[in-house]
Amino acid sequence: MVIGAFYFIYQKTLHNDQLSIETFINQLEKSVFTSSKSILILLSFTICNWFFEIVKWKTLVSSIKNISLFDSFRQSLGSLTASLFTPNRIGEYGAKAIYFKKGNRRKIMLLNLLGNSSQMAITVLLGILGLTYIVINFDIEIDLSRFRKAGYIIALLLVVLIGGSIKGLKKIRGFYIDKIIQFIKEMPKTLHVKTLTFSFLRYVFFSHQFYFLLTIFGVDHNYPTAMALITSMYLLASIIPSMALLDWLVKGSVAIWLFSLVGVNELIIVTITLLMWILNFGFPAMIGSYFVLNFNTNQQR
After folding, report:
1. Which of 17, 118, 137, 243 could bridge across to 195 with cysteines, CB 3.0–4.6 Å?
2. Which residues, including other chains, have CB under 8 Å from residue 213's CB and lie 6 or more apart?
3. Is the pTM of the predicted complex or chain greater than 0.85?
4. Which residues contact 34 (CB under 8 A, 6 or more apart)?
5. pLDDT (0 to 100) of residue 282
6. How far, rounded to the nearest angstrom, does the alpha carbon of residue 252 sit from its chain's CA centroid?
């Protein structure tokens, strides 16, 4: 697992078809590496991003079993490494569950679902606001006829789900949907508020890390427009199924299209998205590999 994670990180940074390592380093030398202050600020954004993710996980797990901040740190980064090359980071669910004894594992998976759903809710809410701003202020033509077939499929799925004609669709990876809903409802309201708050704070830091990189690379646009483009990028990228290893490529493709609306150079956007991936996935996964290698059953709670 660790060898695979390091191999993919190596491939994405040193043997990347979208951006050569020479071009990438050259771009960083012209902008990021010119100031130690900029490097410290970028690292601070990454630390804050993961700090709130770690605190969020500790808060969620403490609803059934108290764990330390270090335990949460170990579980969060270890599960990131384990899920790096699984679609939509699905491996995170099983990776976090193995840190707990069998009697708690199903609850842990549901708590992880709750945490991810809260993060997604923030992404969708702010993304819709960003997209609304873009549609109002930019001339974007959307051919609605292209979405007709997709609309029919979605409508059919809704009918099937509501009618319950296929029993299997009432389950999500072995969990009945009504049981999941009941579990979420039984969670204290204060827990939901804390989870959403930590998700929002995490979003604030990694979205502003992207904004800070734009300013470093000399992209001079007013704050509302830049943030609308960034929040729209995260929304559109989040609804496209992908592996965490391809996260930067998906975001990069979406970002290139969005920022082309304001004339931002494609190379700058590709460089920023790759650097964001390294800071928020690559480095944390390398740290998490230590916890994966040193995992033993005595760590189970």
Report:
1. 118
2. 32, 42, 272, 275, 276
3. no
4. none
5. 87
6. 14
